[in-house]
Amino acid sequence: MIDPALLSGIIKLTILLLIQYASGSLVFYKGVKVNYTRKINHFALFFIPMFIDNIIPVQPSIELLIIGSVVAIAGLIIYIKPIRTNSRLIQRMFLSFDRPEDRPNTLLWLTTQTAVGYLIVIPIVIYFFKIGYEDLLLIPILVNGIGDGLAEPVGIRFGRLKYKTYALFSKIKYERTIEGSACVLFTSIIVIIFFQSSFTSSEFICALIVFPIVMTLAEALAPHTWDTPFLFLFGYLTLYIVKIMPFVAH
Q: N or C end of the chain: which has fewer CB within 10 A?
């Protein structure tokens, strides 16, 4: 009988690749903006694993997290130019997240963001489990998955108040919007309220005031396409400080 973790991984990967191909086809055939199809992939990457985990329960472990991170990063190799130019299937999948304004750095930014994101999350997961803060681990992940996921499409559709941010390995400035960043702010507030039971009353008030501001600034000031590492780093650091501050009554 196939191992549940392996079966779950195969199903997740298959569904995510199919969604990526479908969203790439929307760009190719229907002219849908890549700014939107990127977020289809973003939300799929966030929600599909959660959905499959409810169907095929797998005991989480740091080993599986490390294996998943290696597979996620290594899997991006299929999108390098020599491979994708020889496969119509991979070209279509690549099209789903290859914003014209990001070229020729699309894959470089995606790979480095993914790698650094895992480099931040893995040691934090280990440490938070060690000190009993594991119930806080989902908070920045939810803000990144939902708030940052909404930021770009909301900004594209409704954004009027614009500002610029820099990008790694490039001198080009990229636009963001206050309306898009507000998605991170409001999502952070809602998530902290949802996790109220994880804090003492004073910790909750402190987190409710500080955490949304920090997350909004982290998203706003992060390099273009590099939101995830910044949201994870400053999100977890803020939660940790709130929990250990000596002047917060316990």
A: N
Burial class (CB in 10 A: 0-12, 13-18, 19+), 70: exposed
Query: What type of residue sits at position 57?
Result: P
Question: Please, which pLDDT band fits residue 61 given cuts at 50, 70 and 90?
Answer: confident
Residue 189's contacts (CB-CB under 8 Å, 6 or more residues apart) are 208, 212
> By the 8 A CB rule, do 151 and 215 touch?
no
Q: Are 24 and 93 in contact (CB under 8 A)?
A: yes
**CA–CA gap between residue 91 and residue 114 (Å, rounded):** 20
Q: Largest Cα–Cα distance of the chain, in whole Å? A: 61
Mean pLDDT of 30-55: 93
CB contact at 8 A, 207 and 242: yes
Residue 71 has pLDDT above 60, yes or no: yes
d(CA 148, CA 168): 19
Residue labelled with tokens 């709130």: 242
